Amino acid sequence: MARYAIGDVQGCMNELQALLEKIHFDPSQDQLWFVGDLVNRGPASLAVLRFVRSLGPHAVTVLGNHDLHLLSVAEGVAASRPDDTVQDILNAHDRAELLDWLRQQPLMHRAADWTMVHAGLLPSWSIAQATALAHEIEVQLRGPDYRALLSSMYGSEPNVWQDRLIGAPRHRVIVNAFTRMRLCSMDGRMQLQFKGAPQQAPVDYLPWFDVPAKYPRDTRVVCGHWSALGLHLTPTVCAIDTGCVWGGALSALRLEDAMVFQVPSSGYAAAHE
Fold this sequence. Notes:
single chain, alpha/beta, Purple Acid Phosphatase, chain A, domain 2
């Protein structure tokens, strides 16, 4: 059995199929780990969502910001954006089943010596605390009041974690850390507007993984979200969003030996500039 972490697919179904052919994916014995953002911006979000759901236990996915945005638009608590490409899901006959399945997915997945999140982990969080905080959001999202969570998660304040936070501000910080964060300061303040390359970061901000963690972590983190970072592999963090939807590549990381497999984008971004 092999486990392959897959970078942000974002509706790029053709590239996903090509990548699975390249790695000789065998659903009878292999498992795919999707780092989130299955949907949006690419041309085939509906096909991607249906395919990943069809894999059952042979696929694990965590929620990304685009996945949460789809849920919010579907529930009418957020407006669709001009560059959204999720209308095929909203019009689908199996819309309810797909969205309910998506709503059940976690923010964080741990297995053996690997932890998967979409964007990152705040340096002040231990793995145990991050697991508990992810569970807080997952319970809310899977419960009857999930619309309240979706409607209150938008915004970039507060931008720093405090244990005493409660209610919507607490949930917003947790969601932003797991699904939107790229940079933070040495004292844990998130900068949530920046999308560029690390060397362009504002003064006093670093990639979240370059800020020393407060607690030891006996795990290697695999994540996506930051296409301008590109492929970034270290002994502690493997970031694998290589910007397929922007004309880059779709990447798979075999967790057993950290070997990387890639297929180029078919040119969707160039065709839609």
